[in-house]
């Protein structure tokens, strides 16, 4: 296991270099000049040229990329062009809110999705099964911004149960977590149902029933444990999607998180902040994938990680 983890960590290096390169090249194609934005309207050509030289924007693209990668390897993510603050400090100030939102959302995804999937699988073709699958289909289809606005209207404006926007208490987490976790819960529910149906038809489940074991023991101790592998895969991927999906949700609920920071940086062509934010999100996503692979081995000892 240790050798496998080390090998995966080493494989992260080319992946992250590729991520930096792709984001760097995309930002080069975005209209607008950061030097012009920083100089302000009516600035002279000499002032703009001076700013470009100070920022290194007058150098070839690959030279700029090489310098950035070299700085990242030393732990320096650069300085924000907009605020003139270290990028790492800006990201760390916003990242906790995004992590909290992602964890709360994945909790909603796992709990709602697995409970709904187990009920649907154990009551196949029943009214409960059909209802759950219809709701799951709606959950996947609903846009997150529409669902968020609807939840705000009913639970914040009408019922006044939760705050309209902001971040700081558990009440602020509820509506954004439901908004972000609903689509994932629908996907997990469908996967749980499919995986459980495959497992409950196995011979050892019939043997367990023949021995007179209680149905709850069969479902949760024997069937669910062996059905978790594909579910873990989906949950791991959903966590990565949640990090990306926080952009819209943070905008709807006015949460100052990483997604909102990246969007604001894109508007201002603040390249160091965009690259730093995407890099941090990519590192988190890669580590989550590594955790998923380790959990494979934990729940199924027969899986070979070599």
TrEMBL record:
Q: What is this protein called?
A: Nickel import system permease protein NikB
Q: Which gene encodes it?
A: oppB_4
Q: Name the SUPFAM superfamilies on file.
A: MetI-like
* The UniProt record lists the keyword Isomerase: no
Q: InterPro entries from the entry?
A: BPD_transp_1_N, MetI-like, MetI-like_sf, Opp2B
Organism for this UniProt entry: Brevibacillus parabrevis
Transmembrane spans: 12-30, 101-120, 132-154, 174-192, 228-253, 273-296
Q: Which UniProt keywords apply?
A: Cell membrane, Ion transport, Membrane, Nickel, Nickel transport, Transmembrane, Transmembrane helix, Transport
Cell location: Cell membrane
């Amino acid at each position: 296991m240790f050798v496998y983890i080390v090998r995966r960590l080493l494989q992260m290096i080319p992946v992250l270099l590729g991520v930096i390169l792709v984001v760097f090249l995309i930002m080069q194609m975005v209209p607008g000049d950061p030097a012009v934005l920083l100089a302000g309207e009516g600035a002279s050509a000499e002032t703009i040229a001076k700013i470009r030289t100070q920022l290194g924007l007058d150098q070839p693209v690959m030279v700029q990329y090489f310098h950035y990668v070299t700085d990242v390897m030393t732990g320096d993510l650069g300085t924000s062009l907009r605020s003139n603050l270290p990028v790492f400090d800006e990201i760390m100030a916003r990242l906790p809110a995004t992590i909290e939102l992602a964890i709360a959302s994945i909790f909603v995804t796992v709990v709602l999705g697995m409970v709904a999937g187990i009920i649907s699988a154990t009551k196949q073709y029943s009214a409960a099964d059909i209802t759950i699958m219809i709701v799951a289909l709606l959950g996947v289809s609903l846009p997150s911004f529409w669902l968020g606005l609807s939840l705000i209207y009913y639970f914040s404006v009408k019922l006044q149960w939760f705050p309209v926007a902001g971040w700081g208490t558990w009440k602020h987490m509820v509506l954004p977590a439901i908004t972000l976790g609903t689509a994932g819960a629908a996907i997990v529910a469908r996967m749980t149902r499919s995986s459980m149906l495959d497992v409950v038809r196995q011979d050892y489940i019939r043997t367990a029933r023949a021995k007179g074991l209680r149905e709850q023991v069969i479902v949760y101790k024997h069937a669910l444990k062996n059905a978790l592998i594909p579910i873990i895969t989906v949950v791991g991927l959903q966590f990565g999607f949640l990090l990306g999906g926080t952009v819209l949700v943070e905008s709807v609920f006015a949460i100052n998180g990483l997604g909102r920071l990246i969007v604001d940086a894109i508007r201002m062509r603040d390249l160091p902040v965009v690259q730093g934010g995407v890099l941090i999100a990519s590192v988190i996503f890669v580590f989550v994938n590594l955790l998923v692979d380790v959990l494979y081995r934990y729940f199924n000892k027969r899986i070979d990680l070599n």
